[in-house]
Amino acid sequence: MHSSKITGLGFYVPKTIVTNQDLEKMFDTSDAWITERSGIKERRFFTEGKDTVSNMGARAATIALENAKLTPKDIDFIIFATLSPDYNFPGAGVLLQRELPFREIGALDIRTQCTGFIYALSIADQFIKTGMYQNILVVGAEVQSNIFEMSTRGRDFAVLFGDGAGAAVVQRTKGEGSKILSTHLHSEGKYAEDLMLEHPGSKLKNRMTPQLISEGKHLPFMRGNMVFKHAVTRFSEVIDECLQANNYKIEDIDMLVPHQANLRISKAVQDKLNLPDEKVYNNIQKYGNTTAATIPICLSELTTAKQVKEGDLVCLAAFGSGFTWASALIRW
Ligand code: UT7
After folding, report:
1. Which atom of ligand 1 is the closest one to the Cα of 158?
2. What is the mean pLDDT of residues 210-239?
3. Where are the domains of the chain?
4. CATH superfamily to which 180-279+293-331 belongs
5. pTM score > 0.85 for this model?
6. Residue 175: predicted pLDDT
């Protein structure tokens, strides 16, 4: 049977850096609160007319393709994870398909928010294992700075989330060495409304009304504290699950790449699993939570800095809206 491996990574973040001090000037918050509660110091915000989810994805993909020594023509399938596509429909995958000289290949959008990249990677892995495709482009990209309100009402989200894109080329491999060992996907839809953006949706005859806007129902909603608690439990469970599935122990992990939701969540998971600092990668300090993009951005930074190298055991894990949670274990 075939296996798959990640052969190229790339990322793009918009040029505009927004610091906690910048946010202090816009609404009632403080650098001390944001740093203490989330670890975030700054994030990137897109520039209208320049950055879109699909063109940021294309910039990340261009670098990933170069690193994999492939051209867009070599790609057999696109999987695009995002909660913030350019349009309600069609999806971001087809918009990426026209950004670069790809063939007329399939393009699939994934809508599992923070776990989007791992879900997409899992799908890529399955398509390659069955022999259907050889080279798949997996992208996670978000423009979120225009979803929330820069106000005290919107501050839960405004301090945590940012914009950015990451991409990975996933290729068929026959070798026993570097490969994706397994992926594990979960959901618990009973918590769908605890982290959501409800409107505009298809439940109402009038998808958007002035009343919905004045009530703030067009803004994302989150029970932060509850999400936090579930996240710590599910992260630990799903990391254990992928280790057990492959007969490894926690000390075998060379690098854990947690979805960047909150530095305190990452630290709590790290403490629970008793992992040393050098085995857990975090960059939320610089970019905030870029949802589907956090993991490929982390992986891209890690491989560029050679902090992850061939032979390492790398664990990816994520938790988010849905609730969904997921992990992947990779022999790099
Ligand atoms: O990627 C997955 C999606 N999201 C997550 O994983 C997020 C998970 N949750 C979290 O990261 C945390 O729950 C937050 C960072 C969102 C909040 O931290 P917390 O420690 O759970 O704070 P809290 O919501 O319990 O709020 C504590 C206080 C409240 O004031 P009172 O009621 O104690 O007087 C809030 O009104 O902090 C206040 N507050 C703020 N103050 C300054 C809430 N947001 C802010 C803010 N700036 N941005």
Report:
1. 48
2. 96
3. 3-176, 180-279+293-331
4. Thiolase/Chalcone synthase (3.40.47.10)
5. yes
6. 75
CA distance 33 to 45: 20
20 is catalytic: no
Residue nearest to atom 23 of ligand 1 (CA): 225
Q: Are strands 221-222 and 195-196 parallel, antiparallel or unpaired?
A: antiparallel
Burial class (CB in 10 A: 0-12, 13-18, 19+), 92: buried
The protein residue with its alpha carbon nearest to ligand 1, atom 21, reads: 225
Q: How many angstroms separate the alpha carbon of residue 37 from the centre of ligand 1?
A: 7
239's tokens = 């990391």
Of 43, 82, 225, the one to substitute when testing ligand 1's pocket (max ligand atoms within 8 A of C-beta) is 225
CA angle, 198 as apex, 60 and 290 as ends, to 5°?
Answer: 25
Three-class SS of residue 224? helix
Least confident of 100-109, 112-121, 171-180: 171-180
- Give me the CATH code for the 3-176 domain, please: 3.40.47.10
Active site residue 289: yes
Query: What does the pLDDT look like over 247-263, one tens digit per residue?
Result: 999 999 999 999 999 99
Q: Residues lining ligand 1, judged by CB closer than 6 Å? A: 29, 33, 37-38, 114, 155-156, 159, 195, 222, 224-225, 227-228, 231, 261-262, 289, 320
- Is 135 a catalytic site residue? no
